[in-house]
């Protein structure tokens, strides 16, 4: 008699030479708790708890590649060497407890220099630590947000270099994976979408021009990031707004990203325009992942958003809609979500010796 297959959520996944013990991923979540871009004890405890809880892969929050690329003054950064060692303490802890950890590299563009959600709304003034922001054109995200300076072609190349330099620092810090953030209305997404990119040069207008900046960043990062470690890219699959970025363009871009050495496409949505009309419901972004998965892009896909239960996550994988499941809020509510999921799916959860008395 054939033994039943283990739940797909707990089957390993090999990405280049990195083997994930399961398909559960802690999604990048901004914590707005750094000073000068430097990680501290909060980040060690916050991210370390997910390793103790058995997550297959843990991502840091959006980590800025330049000071003016931070969303808020309290964001993490990897724009200078002094930020390496504190993040190394985090990766060392995760590795000592059997975990894998990646860093999400980001530039907020016209959505930079804004308050953390519980500290205020809109633009942070200069006297409170705010700064000049940049974007593909001079239009702000919202009237309460900063007005951007147009990023010149020279500035674009400097930003490409900043992503590559941050990836080198990420390697020194001991990260297992890098994710390039090109979603949620931040700089690279701004260049992708016709709703935020009105340029008429080589970086605006046609699809080929609008994706150019992201492809240059990917190429530069892949060149310095170790060949044996995976590279992720997060995209907003749709702007949820007429005339914006959509799923068809996402599929077309996915094929290009695979050619450039990207291993996983992390698919979210929205964030580009206040005019968006998002149809939220359980697993509402899964169909985007499913469409890319079935488009023969030859790239692994991670889905995220309103996925709460182990049964829901397992069904997504069993249907072939995605290869990895990323969760955010569920992990904030329960850092041991992975172990609980194993129990609910009929397995004996892996747990540190110190935690086994809990009855896992």
Integer average pLDDT: 96
Rg on CA atoms, Å: 20 Å
Low-confidence stretches: none
Distance between the termini: 28 Å
Strand content: 15-25%
Count of separate structural domains: 1
Helix/strand layout:
Blueprint: E1 13-15, E2 18-20, E3 24-26, H1 41-52, E4 57-64, E5 76-77, H2 84-96, E6 101-106, E7 134-135, E8 149-150, H3 153-173, E9 177-182, H4 187-192, H5 207-210, H6 212-224, E10 231-236, H7 247-259, E11 264-268, H8 286-293, E12 300-304, H9 310-318, E13 324-327, H10 329-333, H11 337-344
Parallel strand pairs: 3-4, 3-13, 4-5, 4-6, 6-9, 7-8, 9-10, 10-11, 11-12, 12-13
Antiparallel strand pairs: 1-2
Helix pairs in contact: 1-2, 2-3, 3-6
Structure, described:
With 360 residues, the protein is an alpha/beta fold. It has one domain (26-358): Alpha-Beta Barrel (TIM Barrel), CATH 3.20.20.70. The protein is built from eleven helices and 13 strands. It has an eight-stranded parallel β-barrel with strand order 3-4-6-9-10-11-12-13, surrounded by seven helices. A two-stranded antiparallel ribbon has the order 1-2. Strands 7-8 form a two-stranded parallel sheet. Helix 2 (84-96) crosses helix 3 (153-173). The chain is globular, with a radius of gyration of 20 Å. The chain starts with 12 loop residues before the first strand and ends in a 16-residue tail after the last helix.
